[in-house]
Amino acid sequence: MELICQSFLSINSSLDLDRVLATILEVIRALFGAVGSSIWLKDPKSGEVVCQQAAGFQRNVVKGWRLSPGEGIAGWVSSYGERVILPDTRKDMRHFRQVADTMQVELRSLISVPMRVKGAVIGALQVVDKQVGRFDESHVDVLEALSDASATAIENAQLFKRANREIAERKRAEKKLKASEKELKEKGNALEEVNTALNVLLKSREEDQLQMEAVIVANVKDLVNPFLEKLSRSQLDEKQAVYVEIIQTNISNIVSPFMRQIPMKFFDLTPAEIQIADLVRKNKTTKEIAALLNTSAKTIEAHRNRLRKKLGLTNQPIQLRDYLMTLV
Known about the structure:
The chain is of the alpha+beta class. The chain contains eleven helices and six strands. The chain starts with a helix and ends with a helix.
């Protein structure tokens, strides 16, 4: 009895399924001294009975063997849930001889008992020997006691194995999810950087376009319109006057789309002031400008003062030309 109690403790000392199965068979070998023993469990997918572990003579031949439901003693016990004791295997047609033939040894005595978990049969625990009449009812009783403890230990080990597998799968899923989140975050950051760069580029292009439009409008007002005005006031024949008018209209049509977007400070100057501002930018002196426009230096000086006032430069320590150079 003490040995059986120690056996129960050994069987339930681990949650590793392979170790539990090996411990069960070691206990049986120590208690029975038989040639071989094996544990057969039902495969829930195929319904077959599979030898999960074996001990004793040529155990590797038996391990992994698969029996159809009801086939062999292990298959019959697993299907019907009844214990079997065979004093002589030759006298029972249920005995599956192919295993023994493969092992090249005749197994004459056999005990097989069902393994149950919560009333349901999960397989069979089996002991074999070459000697006829090797086992009796006392051996069956001990094996059934071991079977109950073994079934519980196997269930616990299977649950533990399944839990570890689920934990590992969950960890892999979490790791994959974190990797996906990291990848998405990196892609989001990259996309944000691209959007920022595109916004900067678009803004720069818009500024360049506005500046180009401002230059076009300013150049037309500074360099073209004043001379067209002078030309229109000169002595022209009727056809020439029409040509000048057409040119003025076409130029106005060309620059008119730009004028809505250019700051108003480019357009609050009179044509004369625009012309003088252009000459100032070209570094012409008051005297030189007066000579070019056929007017007095005093008039040009008055225009320069009005330019400074309109541009907000009154009482400011900045040269008119320097400021004009920053506008366009």
